[in-house]
Amino acid sequence: MSPAMSLTAIGLVIAATIGIGLFGLRISRTTSDFYVASRAVTPRWNASAISGEYLSAASFLGVAGLVLVNGADMLWFSVGYTVGYLMLLVLIAAPLRRSGAYTLPDFAETRFESAVVRRICSFLVVGIGTLYLLPQLRGAGLTLRTVTGAPSSVGAAVVAVIVVINVAAGGMRSITFVQAFQYWLKLTALAAPIFVILIAWRSSEHPVGLLDSLHGAGAEWAEPLSTAGGRDHPLYATYSLLLALCFGTMGLPHVLVRFYTNPDGRAARRTTVVVLALLGAFYLFPPMYAVLGRSFAPDLIGAGADTVVLELPGRIFPGTVGDLLGALVAAGAFAAFLSTSSGLTVAIAGVIDQDLLRGRLNRVTGGDYLAVNGFRIAALLAIALPYLAFELTGRLSLADTVGLAFAVAASTFCPLLVLGIWWRRMSTVGAAAGLLVGGVAAITAVLVNVIGPPSGGWPKALFGQPAAWTMPLAFLTMIVVSRLTPQRIPAGTARSLVRLHTPEAVDVDRSFPQP
Q1: Nearest to residue 351, comparing CAs of 88, 129, 113, 134?
Q2: pLDDT tens digits, one per residue of 232-242
Q3: Contact between residue 414 and residue 121 where contact means Cβ atoms under 8 Å apart
Q4: How confident is the prediction for the chain on average, in pLDDT?
Q5: DSSP tag of 506
Q6: Nearest CA-CA partner of 192 in 200, 203, 204, 180
Q7: Taking CA 6 as the corner, what is the angle to CA 2 and CA 7, rounded to the nearest 5 degrees?
């Protein structure tokens, strides 16, 4: 891999990202522009932007690394990441858009009429967003270190600075343009080397490479539910992972905020359908890198598996062709880190601005407060904390770290949204209790993995993939506590549910007047 070519490609991506982001500054003036792009993003444009921010470091680098090490079971990552949007489409996409909220805490306060529930949601958004930002920064450091040998902190700093510039420049409207561009760049960067490899293999007089990789995979590696990679209780781990990915998607703050940008609920559903197609196309390629890596980069199986996508083009095509393909992949990897980090930063900044900064700044300035400037300050804070803490995830792979973020989301916001949208007997106390129980259980599992996971057996499996017990625990807590506290059902529940399930063309306030 040529460092000069790779750095040039990364530089071009950064320049294009800043240029497109600054263009958003020209058309971003209002609070609505910064938070939800004035709710005017079309389904196709929004689908490209959602796919751009959703396909993170774990998708671009981590999935291939996990499949390389652990085998066929890790293909469920690709399936789960995509199916999560199907669950979101079926259960919450349109009602969430109709809620009229800017952020998840906005929705929680409107639905449950409780400042306490809102405050819990605010802390969870910041926690989940920070946990999801850590592998983006670590992936950037890994990429720059692989390309140039620079310290990991340099790559993380580059991503942090570029994200702050883009988000502060134009908020949601600005990063919508950036993320749509970055999705197609990432797809091209990941697909082009595979097509070149296949063409070279077909045109060879002695076709080798792909077939050798398939034969060299090994029965244990290719067999589902095996113990390859030192996995304990693979059946439990697989189902728990699927639960986290399928139901955690609807609890990711940077994903949900995107559905507030659609003009109406119908557009939100159409957006989700297009997203499913775009994600399906992308996830065809990471497993191919893993299979080829078994033959062409076997030394990465023990350590450095997350770099297989970056290393593979140069291993198969030594020389100029490999350098060019490697530079393209490095550029795509940086696009992945930038797009996901931008979406997360917007989601976290919105919550920090509304729930932590705005009241304080109003008190300091005597009410002379500009919402846009507060959002920009919040964006700086939103990226600073993950940058200071990203070294803590050094013992976990990129995809494992993201998987834990999904588990926390599945154990908190998933039950809150599903029950809050579809169950009228949900009480304020039940919502708060479920968020706390599910959040504490899942975050404890995260801390155990970061500090030092158990060496083996059921403890390792239960803490390594906690969603199978933390998510049902949160659902059960919300249901039981709500049944025990019927007097704490919000007075405006009927009105809220009518708003969530009525098409936007109907004026709910006139059709359902105040008593």
Answers
A1: 129
A2: 788 898 899 89
A3: no
A4: 80
A5: S
A6: 200
A7: 115
Beta carbons of 307 and 138 less than 8 angstroms apart: no
Highest mean pLDDT: which range of 167-181, 338-352, 422-436, 454-468 = 422-436
Q: How many CB atoms within 10 Å of residue 394? A: 10
- pLDDT score, position 160: 86
Cα separation, 169 vs 220, in Å, equals: 51
Interhelix angle for 234-248 vs 398-410, to 10°? 70
Query: What does each C-alpha distance from 418 to 105, 242, 310, 377, 410 come to in angstroms?
Result: 15, 18, 39, 33, 11
What tokens were used for 345?
């930063």
pLDDT at 127 > cutoff 70: yes
CB 167 within 8 A of CB 349: yes
Q: Give the list of residues 6+ apart from residue 31 with CB closer than 8 angstroms, or none.
A: 371, 372, 375
Average pLDDT in the 109-128 region? 91
**3-235+253-393 falls under which CATH superfamily?**
Sodium/glucose cotransporter (1.20.1730.10)
- Give the pLDDT confidence of 12-51 residue by residue, as tens digits: 988 887 777 666 555 545 555 555 555 556 777 788 888 8
Domain ranges of the chain: 3-235+253-393
pTM: 0.82
* Angle ∠(265,492,248) on CA atoms, nearest 5: 50
Which amino acid is present at 2? S
Count other Cβ atoms within 10 Å, centred on residue 486. Answer: 10
Identify the pLDDT of residue 172: 63
Q: Are 309 and 64 in contact (CB under 8 A)?
A: yes
**pLDDT tens digits, residue range 149-194?**
888 888 888 888 888 877 766 556 667 777 888 889 999 999 999 9
What are the tokens at 317? 């095509």
SS3 of residue 35 by DSSP: helix
Helix (H, G, I), strand (E, B) or coil at 56: coil
- pLDDT at 388 > cutoff 50: yes
Q: What separation in angstroms does the CA of 361 have from each of 125, 193, 272, 312, 364?
A: 21, 51, 37, 51, 5
Long-range contacts of 226-234 (CB under 8 A, 24+ apart): 226/71, 226/72, 226/73, 228/69, 228/70, 228/71, 228/73, 229/69, 229/70, 229/71, 231/70, 231/73, 232/456, 232/457, 232/458, 232/460, 232/461, 233/457, 233/458, 233/461, 234/73
- pLDDT score at 426: 95
Q: Tokens 């689908």, residue?
A: 47
Contact between 500 and 95 under an 8 Å Cβ cutoff? The reply is: yes
Angle among Cα 367, 371, 376 to the nearest 5 degrees reads 125
